[in-house]
Every structure is written in C-alpha cells, then in structure tokens.
Amino acid sequence: MHRLPPSLLVVVLLLLGPASLRTPCADEETPTERMRATSARFFAQYDRDGDGRLSREEYPAFLRFAFRRADADGDGYVTPAEDLASRVAFRKEVGPRRPGAGIRRVPEGVTVHADLAYAEVDGTTLRLDLFLPKSSTNRPPLFVWIHGGGWTRGSRKGVNPLVLRLAGEGYATASIDYRLGGLASHPKQIHDCKGAVRWLRAHAGEYGYDASRVAVGGGSAGGHLSLLLGLSSGVEALEGTVGGNTGVSSGVEAIVDLYGPGDFLLFRKSSARFARRAPEDLLRAATPLAYLTADDPPVLILHGDRDPVVPLSQSREVHRRYREAGLTSTLHVLEGAGHGGKQFSDDERFLLVKSFLDRHLRTGSESTPRQPTPAVPPAEGGRR
C-alpha cells in the first residue's frame, strides 16, 4: 500500500483542517460536509480578487507545491469543486482517524470527552475537548485553555501539556476552538471564547465540575484572548450570543497569560509589520487593557526575554497597569526563552501555574461569577 511521506501528511492535515482528526458520531455532520465548510473558509481567506477561484499566486505559499494536484483541469486556477475533490482524495489516502485523535498524551486517571460541540456559527461547528479527573470526590474547579496561532491557525488539539497535567492533579480542564481569520475578524474570536465559557458553565452539572470556580489561560494569541475574556466581563460588544446561554456569566476568577499581547496600540509602535495588520480603531477595540476594571481577576504572566514575536514589553505593560490599579499580577520572565517552547510546560512552570490556580480557585468558599464594575481610569498613554 502506498503511504504519504511524513512531510506531506503535515500538509494534508493543514488542508483538511482540524476536522480531519476525528470521525463523526451519529449526530455529527459527515466528513465531506466538514471539508466543504473548511474549503469555504479557505476560499474566503485567500480569494483576494473575489472571482470564486484561486490562482497560484493567491494560493498560500506553504501549500503552493500542492497547487498542481488541486488544479485538476490544469487551467491555472483551483475552483471550489476542485478544492473539495482534492480534500476528499487526500482524506481517502490518509484514512479515517479515531475520535479524539490528535490530543496530546493524557495522564492516567483522566476521562476525556472529545469533540463536544458548543456552538454552530457561520456554518461552522465549534468544538471543545474536556478532561475530567476520575478520582475527584468534590466538584473540581475548571481551567479553560485557548490555543494560539496568530488568530489564523492552530487547534484545541495543540493544548499545552501542563493543561492535561492539571487534569491529572484534580482540575477539570477544557481546550476550545474558535473561528480563525486573523485579528481583523475581531470580535468573532472573543465572542466564540465567551460562548465556550458560558456553555461550560451551563453544562457543569452534567459533567460534574464547579461552575463558580473557572479560570482561563492561553499562549500567544490565546494569551491575548484569555486577557480580553478575563478583563471584559459584561462588555456587551464583546459578549456576543455564540452558543446561546446568554443568561450565564462569561466572567472568570483567574487568568494565566503566556506571552500574549495586552496592548495593541503599544505593540504597533514597536512593530511596523504589526501596524499594517489592522486599523487603529480595531486595535483599540481588541486591546485587553482597554477594559481594565477595578475588580478584574488576578493574572499570572509568563514571558520569555528573547521572544522575537511578542515583545516582553507587552507583558510588562499588563503587569504595570494591573499594579497601578491595585490588582493582583505576577510576572515571571523566563531567561533565554523565546516565543513558546518546552520551558513553558516544564515542571517549574507547571508548579507556578498550579500554585496560582490553587490559591485563587481552591481557597475559601465557592463564589458567584464576578460582575463588571466601573472602569479604572487608564494610566497616561493608556486607552479606553
């Protein structure tokens, strides 16, 4: 039997999207339907001239070597029908995957509920994976992980290993997907993330965790969305209605931010490339620190001092503004660390995160999810 080389398998999975990592349950859409939705998003992102087909120049550079295979009639363009046929052919070649495939290794004593649908939006099913400790005698607190990827790529399957490790230490944890499409699609991503938190709270009784003790965390773009979610509880423009449950709070009791940007207007001053990505009003609206309030939840920040993507100054600014507002912030700078890597999930960092969560989610009695309070005036140079 002919097998694809590993390098091509990576590209196959990128083409097929995260949906290729699972097989459908009886009530799910078929693989072809999922691939059709993925293809539609692919064209929406890369069909720059809007003619309904992709030229070789419009095809993303990292997939360009696969253009000839997708261009079945050889006319120099890939149509939606050709793209879908190409995806179906790839799927047949690589074969079906078992449910939950792609999830990192899960510790012993953890129950996995994979591929749970929390919303249907824009023709897309948004899903999450839930990890529950088997031996918990009480309802455990919940930690929600938001993946990174520059708001354009990534998947809940690429969860930081420390999130799974937390599930083995008595925490319920969840890893969520959200709509991609770049920062320019704000506020879609934050609407999705808040919808996921509301869904998780609404289903706490079904799965047995404590809906009153919820924290959120993420890395890079996921760190940004974690900050934005945690700092904007009750902000109508950012709440949205994704997934329903609009009477349920999306607020959280703690934030873990791994090298996420917290101030886009400051970021654009130090990065000409970033400055071109979105207009100033959008950057202002998507800036977490623009929503800083007097009762914002405590934050733990981890950032490498050699990060070439998100400058350390971003995390220093979040820490500074938190402290000025009289809020709880802890910043750990990892010497020699870049943008991500194993240092952010090693034993030392795991203990930092677990200690932080233990302190803010396990201490004292159960609490009611926080409600918004009047905003703290921004410091000089800040925004509102």
Care to give the gist of this entry?
The protein has 384 residues and is of the alpha/beta class. The protein is 35% helix and 15% strand. The chain folds into two domains: 6-94, EF-hand (Recoverin, domain 1, Orthogonal Bundle); 110-362, Alpha/Beta hydrolase fold, catalytic domain (Rossmann fold, 3-Layer(aba) Sandwich).
Q: Tell me roughly what share of residues is in helical segments.
A: 25-40%
State the low-pLDDT regions, or none.
Answer: 6-16, 18-29, 94-101, 364-384
Determine the strand fraction and express it as a percent band: 15-25%
State the CATH architecture of the largest domain: 3-Layer(aba) Sandwich
Number of helices: 14
Counting DSSP E segments of at least 2 residues, the number of strands comes to 10
Summarize the structure in words:
- This protein is an alpha/beta fold.
- The protein has two domains: about 90 residues, EF-hand (Recoverin, domain 1, Orthogonal Bundle); about 250 residues, Alpha/Beta hydrolase fold, catalytic domain (Rossmann fold), CATH 3.40.50.1820.
- An eight-stranded mixed β-sheet has the order 3-4-6-5-7-8-9-10, with helices on both faces.
- Helix 1 packs across helix 4, helix 2 crosses helix 4 and helix 6 packs across helix 8.
- The longest helix is centred in the N-terminal third of the chain and has 16 residues.
- The chain starts with 5 loop residues before the first helix and ends in a 22-residue tail after the last helix.
